[in-house]
Amino acid sequence: MTSMVRRLALVSAVSAAAFAFAPPAPAAAYPQCLANTMCGWLYYSDAARTHQQGGHTTNCDGVVLDWGIKQGYSKYIVQTCGGEPDPV
Predict the structure, then answer these.
(1) Distance, CA of 37 to CA of 28 (rounded, Å)
(2) Cross-strand bridge partners of residue 41
(3) How many Cβ atoms from other residues are within 10 Å of residue 57's Cβ?
(4) Which uninterrupted H or E stretch holds 16?
(5) Quick one: pLDDT band at residue 35, thresholds 50, 70, 90?
(6) Which of 17, 27, 36, 66 is the most buried (most CB within 10 A)?
(7) 82: pLDDT confidence band, cut at 50, 70 and 90?
(8) How far apart are CA 39 and CA 56, in angstroms?
(9) Which residues are CB-contacts of 46 (< 8 A; sequence separation ≥ 6)?
């Protein structure tokens, strides 16, 4: 019975070590903006969201802008691009 307990302890230790040294999961990808919109995430250092510290946005031309510190409090933004065409 003692050898079974030792085996169980060894298997548990190896499993715990494998879990501890496993690579972290990859970061989730940012979603694409819908057509004719600009969107992205803005990151703030405070819960009141008054001190912006970074962001990941896509502008109306499809250019991805990635800057600053991307952690902390976040807000997802979406805005339509341009105005509606003038009626004829």
Answers:
(1) 21
(2) 56, 76
(3) 18
(4) helix 2-20
(5) confident
(6) 66
(7) confident
(8) 9
(9) 72, 73
CA dihedral 13, 14, 16, 17 (to 10 degrees): 110
Residue keyed to tokens 């019975």 = 1
For residue 41, how many other CB atoms are within 10 A of its CB?
A: 16
Short-list 61, 11, 10, 65, CA closest to 42: 65
At 74, list the tokens: 């976040």
Give the domain ranges of the chain. 2-80
DSSP E strands: which ranges in 1-88? 37-44, 52-58, 64-68, 73-80
Structure tokens at 27: 């970061």
Quick one: pLDDT at residue 28?
Answer: 62
Length of the chain (residues): 88
